[in-house]
Amino acid sequence: MSAPTILEGQGLTMRFGGLMAMAEVDFTLRKGEILGIIGPNGAGKSTLLNIVTGLYKPSSGAVRLAGERIDGLPAHRIVAMGIARTFQSSRLFGDLSVLDNVVIGRHALMKSGLLDAILRRGRAQAELNDAAERAAALLKAVSRDLYAQRHRPAAELPQADRRRLEIARALASEPRVLLLDEPSSGMDDADTDALMADIRAICAARPDLALMIIEHDMRLVAALPHRVLVLDYGQKLADGPYEEVRKIPRVQEAYLGRKAAQHARA
Amino acid sequence: MSASNPASNLTPADVAAPVVAAPRAIALVAAIELAGALFLRQFLLAEDWRVVVAMLALFGAALVAMQRRPALEARIEAAFADQARLAALLGLAIVLAFPFVLEKSTYALHLLVLAQLYAVLALALNFQLGSANIPNFATGASYGIGAYASALLAVNWDVSFWLALPAAAVVATVFGFLLGVPSMRTRDSYLALVTIAFGVVIHQLLNNLEFTGGPNGLVGIPAPELFGHSFASPLVILGYDLPAQANFYYLSALLVGIAILFARRVHDSRVGLAWNALRADELAARCQGINATWYKVLAFAVDAFLAGFAGTIYAFYVGFISPDNFTFLVSVTIMTMVIAGGMDNTLGVIVGAFLLTLLPEKLRAFSDYRILFFGVTVIAFLMIRPQGLFPQRLRRYGA
């Protein structure tokens, strides 16, 4: 892969009081690349995502999007710059329609404010209708099933559809980087297979989109990412293709414990 | 209550958008609006407590019918959506004609003026509580700031009502911003506490400051004039004499109309969507690019702006204001109107405001038990319609 770097982190450190949640982590993400992030619970995976999306301000270190510093910017500005995310436990706008959820995903791409809504209604309405049309088209592309349910409240969707809707909502902001936080959590194998097919289709339609996926399901980790970043106790253990990373003893220890890892190697 | 009948298990999607033929839709819209107007007239003029109770029972029965037969509600809704223009024009005609059918009752007109001002206040708070789930207990304070600002302008500097109106709204909006900014450091219950404290501080200031007249308030606020017609004198339309209150009835009706327009435009816009997103999940909203702080402060400002207008009309209507008109209890009442009427539903909020303004007045026959009966009635309606009288509706786009 020699595509240009779109997102990079340097020396990212995060302290919560005396607790060191992340220490000197570096990473890079290239255009069109899928980077898997794995590690045991508490390894700092979600902390990394929260730093990149602006929910946390790193204690030290820098995040750059296409060369521009973004660490310390508020979350809503980072979305506007082209980084979108989903959440581990789905955080949809449950009492709004499926379509509205996706329209809200386009918030940063729309401009009309309060005065436009009141005094220049035609313009505000045209912008919103346009957003609704694009949102409907996006829903249709992501899942016909979801599109058929676009006028239902999002809270009524089954689990797999919720995850799909969250991905569609994130894509609505037309991001350059998409971060997925454990997209397969709570899914059975069939749902995970469908999810993997969805992600492949999304990437095929957007060759420049870079993905970071936090994942526990090793089937998905083995199949999708081009590269895997392993975190443990807030530190980077390894970074490379899954087939290589899985053979590194320290990675096996982190996942299986020292004894079991020795046993597995023996 | 609703769990016991199978019909209410239908989701709105199952019964969505039934097709109603145009003539039937027209008939349905006209019948409902006229019936509503007739109901309001009889309720306003009812003097016998038995009539009042019977009418409340009728209203409750209508709510039960709507709750048990979602298809019925969906049909009414579809008819109104289909004949939106007719519904608006007929509604306007009813509002204009209404004072003529009240048998020149000044009391009924007075109640209507108050109900309409409360409807504006409830619509104002709905931007916060209904749309964005910001528990603001200071709407009564913004109402008071608007009233005092315009009254001070009129009493001290002879500023006319028509200039004082926008000026007071601007003053109230500035205070809304002042409240909004520190409130952003807190949320939920803590935010509610900050707004309660703000309301109490404003009340105490009005009570203790020299230039606001202290506990005695401000007296001698002159009645507005328009083209030489004083609002204190009877209104003569086509040879028909209406009591002086009718002037303020039309004025406050105009304000309600503007507030409705305002509310609908904002609700069906990017701003309304952003507020709804914040209500559902603030963290997720921020991660969709919504500037949570800005939109919350904006909600405070909009609430104060509309409340300032209502305050000005109130001050010039009664001609005398004191701090006790704008207590914490006023804010709580406005909040109850929004919750009981239906969060984020314009019609619901207005019906809630009318119900909660008129009910205590109409229950005077129960003297000491008035407040008890009032509470029981509101609770009963909420048991029938847990989401408020008219709950929030999902948005539709384009065709």
Summed over residues and divided by their number, the pLDDT of chain A gives a mean of 89
The quaternary structure here is heterodimer
Give a quick account of the main beta sheet of chain A: strands, pairing sense, barrel closure: 6 strands, mixed
General form of chain B: globular
Described by strand count, sense and barrel closure, the largest sheet of chain B is: 2 strands, antiparallel
CATH topology of the largest domain in chain B: ABC transporter involved in vitamin B12 uptake, BtuC
Mean pLDDT of chain B: 85
CA(first)-CA(last) distance of chain A? 34 Å
What Rg of chain B do the Cα atoms give?
21 Å
How many helices of chain B does DSSP assign?
15
Q: Per CATH, which architecture of the largest domain in chain B?
A: Orthogonal Bundle
User: How large a portion of the residues of chain B is in β-strands, by DSSP E?
Assistant: under 5%
Helix content of chain A: 40-55%
Uncertain runs of chain A are: none
Strand order of the largest sheet of chain B: 1-6
Q: What radius of gyration of chain A results from the CA coordinates?
A: 20 Å
**Strand order within the widest sheet of chain A?**
6-7-8-3-9-10
Summarize the structure.
The complex is a heterodimer of chains A (266) and B (399). Chain A is 42% helix and 23% strand.
